[in-house]
Amino acid sequence: MANVAVYNMEGKEVGAMELNDAVFGVDVNEHLVHLAVVAQLANKRQGTQKAKTRSEVSGGGRKPWRQKGTGHARQGSTRAPQWTGGGVVFAPTPRDYTIRLNRKEKRLALKSALTSRVQENKLIVLDELKFDEIKTKKMQAVLDALNVSKALVVLNDNDANVVLSARNIANVQTALTNTINVYDILKYNTLIVTKAAVATIEEVYA
Fold first, then answer.
1. Where do the domains of the chain lie?
2. For 79-107, how does the pLDDT look when each residue is reduced to its tens digit (9 = 90+)?
3. What is the pLDDT of residues 48-59, one digit of tens each?
4. Could you say which of 3.40.50.10240, 3.40.50.300, 3.30.450.40, 3.40.1370.10 is the CATH number of the domain covering 2-39+101-205?
5. Average of pLDDT values for 114-125?
6. Rounded distance, CA 139 to CA 104, Å?
């Protein structure tokens, strides 16, 4: 099992913690991680883009001039793509971009992402993260003490004071243990997790 240091909100080491290898020590499957990221980004797309082809644009039913003798190139319609107001070549149409991964693939991709953060020493465990008021300055002080600038903060409970204190800091995002995903874990340089959140993640994914 991997041993990681546990820090307090002042950035001081206050202990150590063993991580469950079933979650934080798996063989990293880069292919599945890639699939999970592609799937998440694709599933965010609305797929509502639409443009009209030459068959859908109104007008253009009449040949604009006779075939020969005008000095112009021959034209069959004023709604062909080369005309202003004409249709779009290979116009986009509404479609579903959904990519589906099965449950085992999703779980292994998430475990691989968590393991990669441990292997790269980008996982920081806090003994607790609590504020008695909503104060961005306090959250920034915690990040400065941990020497972190871009982080995903994973909480076990939806603590409004912590969430709202972090909301206005650039490159910092909060998440609950049931909303973490591969894309966010890889997007931020550092993963900050409370001890309670680690226990919950291990309980759910082990």
1. 2-39+101-205, 46-96
2. 999 999 999 999 999 999 999 999 999 99
3. 999 999 999 999
4. 3.40.1370.10
5. 93
6. 36
